[in-house]
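USER:
Class, as today's exercise, take the chain set out below, and explain how the chain folds.
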Amino acid sequence: MSLIHKRQGKNPHLQPNIIISFKMKMILLVAALSMAIITVIGLFIGHFISVTMEAQVGDRALSVAESVAHIPELAEAFGQEDPSSIINPLVAPIQKATKAEFIVVGNTKEIRYAHPDIDKIGKKMVGEDNEKALIDGESYVSKAAGSLGDSVRAKVPVYLDGKIVGVVSVGFLVNDIQSIIRSYNIHLWIVLLNIAIAAVIGAILIASYIKKVLFGLEPEEIAHLFVQKETILQSTHEGIIAVNQHGMITMINVAAQRLLFNQVTHPNQYEGKSIKELEQAKQLLHFLQDENDRIDQELVIGKTIVFANKVPIFHEKSLIGTVFTFRNKTEIDLLTKELTSIKQYTNALRAQTHEFSNKLYTILGLLQLDKKEEALSYIHQESSLQKNWIRLLIQKVSDPQVSGLLLGKINQASELGIEIRIQEDSRLATPLYEKQREALLTAIGNLIDNAMDAVRKNPPDDRKIAIFFTDIGKDIIFEIDDAGEGVPDLYVKMIFDQGFTLKKGEHGGFGLALTKQLIEGVNGELYLEEGDLGGASFVLSMPKERGESDA
């Protein structure tokens, strides 16, 4: 039997107010988080590419400039009358080969000896950033605006015989560098965009999977159901314990704690522990490996007798746990007692009704036969007998419920052809408190019913029951004697055991056990002795005063 089912439908009136579904929240959250991360990564990588590219271009320009500055022919050309005629043809192929935007060579007065634009040869260099090379002899990279535009340029001094005679400037236009950077960034953002799309698709798939695992429920619905079901579990009167397939307790409610431990603490004290560790619950161990249901198994847990039920939990045909429920047998016995009392009252009323109906038919027959005197005599006789019983019970029994029960049993016995005789010296004047009255009513009803069953098979003139009761002294005593077969000596010690019965073919064995339990509940006693009528004689006694346990 599986306890895990998917919800087939939802009642909109029982659901919490949900504006955005969990699936949409997951998609939006993952998408927003992915876009934020991707944006930060994109900006960082874009900036890194820009800085790296400019650094690489600067290093490349510096390397080319140093190579040019160290050409011997170039340095020696500075000592000629027309250096530009030697230097410009010398550096032009290098510029083309290195794809530099320009290679400019100038003297110490910043007059150009080489330039991509021949018309600018002989004119002063632009940029005003040659001082560190010409004066300090440094090689460096700078970014400045030249005659061809903004550029990243490298400056290297030219030496001749150990003296600075000029400067080599190799540059790449900033616009060209930015064009390369933009190309890289476009490819970068295309890749990142694809990653973002994949992240959104992944978010949809993950949200759908989680939604499926949660049986289509929203988190708010899960919280709502959890609170609702936790309240139901903790407020139910039945004890409930859930364990997993390893015997670890996963849930225990308040009623189970009361039944097992006679106290209520936080469930965390027991949850997560093995059921083997709980001395009071060890009787449940042999249930764990059994995959079948168990219904109303009688167990003794501590000092409490309970009816235990076991339902295994299956998921995809695998046993994943077990749920145990407990009901206090004493409470069920009390309910049985109430039902027994009601049945007794019903039987008594039925007997009275049936007997009254028979008497009415008798009177009607006498009247139809025109025997008025006999009819009047019969009416006076029955009225006198009924009045005598009522007067006797009113005089001798102060509690109306007890006298009503006795009168009902007398009428029921009369219908069955059984004679019930109440001894003349019987009396019960002591007021009864509620628990005492309930115990006495159940006990009297059960004992008289058993006595009637015992004499029912006797000959008509031997169907006799004698009742005696008194409250003289400190105790209330009831003695019910019958003319039945009695209880064999072999069974005397077992007669009050639950489930034991001498009635063949009947599912009994609870009446006397319940009666004894109720009488002992008011500090009384119930015992069996040999009767004067030849059958069984049951005697019950209970103290008049209320005990501490009854307070």
